[in-house]
Amino acid sequence: TYVVTDNCIMCKYTDCVEVCPVDCFYEGENTLVIHPDECIDCGVCEPECPADAIRPDTEPAMETWVEFNRKYSELW
Ligand code: SF4
Predict the structure, then answer these.
(1) Using CA atoms, how far apart are residues 54 and 32, in angstroms rounded to an integer?
(2) Among candidates 66, 6, 75, 76, which has minimal Cα distance to 37?
(3) For ligand 1, atom 4, which residue shows the shortest CA distance?
(4) Could you report the per-residue pLDDT of 24-52, keeping only the tens digit for each?
(5) Of 31, 35, 66, whose CA–CA distance to 49 is shortest?
(6) How far apart are CA 75 and CA 52, in angstroms?
(7) Top-level class of domain 2-75
(8) How far is the CA of 54 from the centre of ligand 1 (A)?
(9) What is residue 8's DSSP assignment?
(10) Where in the chain are the domains?
């Protein structure tokens, strides 16, 4: 899965939302998140983010961000 990380906070360009083929972005007041179970790992959103906030969960130490994205995508 891909996840939204801290560069998105107070940013929210939403270019990523427009390209996601499965609409798995959820929008809160201060950030966007990706639902980790709905993301199909296509990667098209990652280069669209001007803030470089979208990262694959295969990078080191991403567990906290996966949980953050899961938690808020289920709340919003
Ligand atoms: Fe959507 Fe693809 Fe990005 Fe996952 S990797 S959030 S499916 S655009």
Answers:
(1) 10
(2) 66
(3) 39
(4) 999 999 999 999 999 999 999 999 999 99
(5) 31
(6) 24
(7) alpha beta
(8) 9
(9) G
(10) 2-75
pLDDT at res. 65 = 97
Residue 63, classed as helix, strand or coil, is helix
Average pLDDT for the chain: 96
CA angle 50, 68, 32 (to 5 degrees): 35
Distance of CA 28 to the CA centre of its chain: 12
At residue 16, the pLDDT reads: 97
Which residues lie with the beta carbon below 6 Å from any ligand 1 atom? 2, 19-20, 22, 24, 34, 39-45
Task: Return d(Cα 76, Cα 32) in angstroms, integer.
Answer: 10
Please list the alpha-helical segments (H only) found in 1-76.
15-19, 63-75
Predicted confidence at residue 12, as pLDDT, reads: 83
Residue 58 corresponds to which tokens in the numbers above?
């295969």
